[in-house]
Design goal:
With about 500 residues, the protein is of the alpha/beta class. It contains 15 helices and 25 strands. It has a nine-stranded mixed beta sheet with strand order 2-1-10-9-11-12-13-14-15, sandwiched between helices. The chain has a five-stranded antiparallel beta sheet with strand order 17-16-18-19-20, with no helix packed on it.
Length: about 500
């Protein structure tokens, strides 16, 4: 028996001298060197007791060693669980308790705090310079490791995605889920070993890890591996790059720099955007400036990528294109497919769709039908040609800078502040981030100011979830059934 994902993405490069990564300090790492490091780290994981099916929680800086840890986890037959580096200790505590990992790898500066919430898990570290207890332990290990057999339906990843009600849910991703999606995207976007991807995304979610990295590995391409998005560096890399995967914020910030022009992007082949809606004016401005039309696609944590605008063909602003090969998309209302042109809930079925939610069989049954279709909760419409347009989000999801923010999670923190009667959190359009978070709050008494409220909320939420503005109200708008009308709030404060 083989190890499905490792054999496809990592094993083919074992002895390759082709360049894989170029790092911020100018260091280059070839594929053979990278796979050797993966093997060394796999030995450390095995020595730490990590076995088939065990979870490895990773909240570490974006360095080569962290990327190699992903490969090592797959090679050990374990389940990779990346977490946003902005999460606070209280947020991390839930994920760790729920996932019950065998090993936690964190930034060296967070080791003491992590040890306090790790439970029975072993804690090791990776620092921003690549050092740490994990990497030190790997330095003298053998560079080869026999991959643990894992089949297509075995778990390879566990990604947490919040809901508008209840706690965060762990989406179980199999080897088949991840590999099938990488294969579809590599073919559709025509990624080859001649490509050089400018990788400025985080590697703790689907976009930066499973889309950008997996397709690069599958194609044997290069990556300019950046610690984070920096417009100056991205512009400097464009003359030797060929591919950029980003979120709308990337493109609005690049457009604000006069050095972005046709000459600078002459070597670039493809610009991809996702994780949040891209404004039509951004499409137009980018095409006018560079001659390139951004390719927008649509995906979710539970499904990887679902649709994409074509590589060859019309990339229509405001739409997310057609279903990927092997993926079925339909739009439904009351569980029945609606005619083309009508709005409904988007459902998707294919090898890309997750296996269910970790430890949540009832939630899995609610959102994953017996026939294999996953109910996305997004509202959309298909034209006669099958092209998909997202028109809304049934659960009031906010997407800011490519990150999912669920209002109830923020509301729960605000409502816990003494003096707060209730709150309603909603998103409004933002030219840079796609959306920004606004909180309407009803308070009792006069002692709680907006600044004081913000100060009490901040320690309990990752920074990207912080409301950009607090609006103090006497009462929240409600309909006759008592439901808060967030549509009215968005309409009134959309210009905030």
């Amino acid at each position: 028996m083989t190890n499905t994902l490792y054999d496809a993405l990592f094993a083919p490069h074992t002895d390759s001298e082709a360049t894989f990564l170029t790092l911020d300090d100018g260091t280059t790492v070839n594929y053979g060197q990278f796979i050797a490091r993966v093997g060394q780290l796999a030995h450390v994981l095995a020595k730490s007791g990590v076995a088939s099916g065990d979870r490895v929680v990773v909240q570490a800086p974006k360095v080569m060693e962290t990327l190699a840890l992903y490969g090592a986890t797959v090679q050990c037959g374990a389940v990779y669980l990346p977490l946003n580096t902005a999460y606070t200790q209280s947020e991390l505590s839930y994920f760790i308790t729920d996932a019950a990992p065998r090993l936690i790898v964190c930034d060296a500066k967070d080791a003491d705090a992590m040890a306090g919430i790790a439970g029975d898990a072993h804690v090791m570290t990776i620092a921003g310079d690549g050092s740490g207890t994990l990497t030190a332990a790997a330095d003298h290990r053998p560079t080869t490791f026999d991959a643990v057999p894992r089949g297509p339906d075995d778990l390879a990843g566990l990604l947490y995605t919040s809901g508008t009600t209840g706690r965060s849910k762990g989406a179980m991703m199999s080897h088949k889920n991840l590999l099938s999606n990488a294969q579809s995207l590599t073919d559709l976007w025509q990624i080859t070993s001649a490509d050089r991807l400018i990788h400025a995304l985080p590697i703790f979610h689907t976009h930066g890890l499973f889309v950008a990295t997996n397709t690069t590995l599958l194609a044997g391409a290069q990556m300019r591996f950046m610690a984070g998005f920096d417009p100056e560096t991205v512009l400097a890399e464009m003359p030797t790059g060929s591919l950029l995967m980003g979120v709308p914020t990337f493109y609005t910030r690049l457009l604000s720099d006069a050095r972005l022009d046709r000459a600078r992007v002459a070597n670039m082949r493809l610009f991809v955007s996702g994780s949040a809606p891209l404004l039509a004016e951004t499409h137009t401005a980018f095409e006018e400036r560079t001659g390139h039309r951004i390719l927008e696609r649509y995906g979710m944590t539970e499904t990887n990528m679902i649709t994409s605008n074509p590589y060859d063909g019309a990339r229509v602003a405001g739409t997310v294109g057609h279903a990927l090969p092997g993926v079925e998309v339909k739009v439904t209302k009351d569980e029945k497919e609606v005619p083309r042109g009508e709005i409904g809930v988007i459902e998707v079925r294919g090898d890309n769709v997750f296996k269910g939610y970790w430890n949540m069989p009832e939630k899995t049954a609610e959102e994953l039908r017996d026939n294999g279709f996953f109910i996305t909760g997004d509202l959309g419409v298909q034209d006669e040609d099958g092209r998909v347009t997202i028109v809304g989000r049934a659960k009031d999801l906010i997407i800011a800078g490519g990150y999912n923010i669920y209002p109830k999670e923020v509301e729960d923190v605000i409502n816990a502040v003494p003096g707060v009667v209730e709150s309603a959190v909603f998103g409004v359009p933002h030219p840079d981030f796609g959306e920004s978070v606004i909180a309407a709050v009803v308070i009792e008494g006069v002692g709680l100011t907006e600044d004081a409220l913000a100060a009490q909320v901040a320690p309990h939420l990752a920074r990207f979830k912080h409301p950009r503005r607090y609006i103090i109200m006497k009462a929240l708008p409600r309909n006759t059934m008592g439901k808060v009308q967030k549509n009215l709030l968005r309409a009134e404060y959309g210009g905030c």
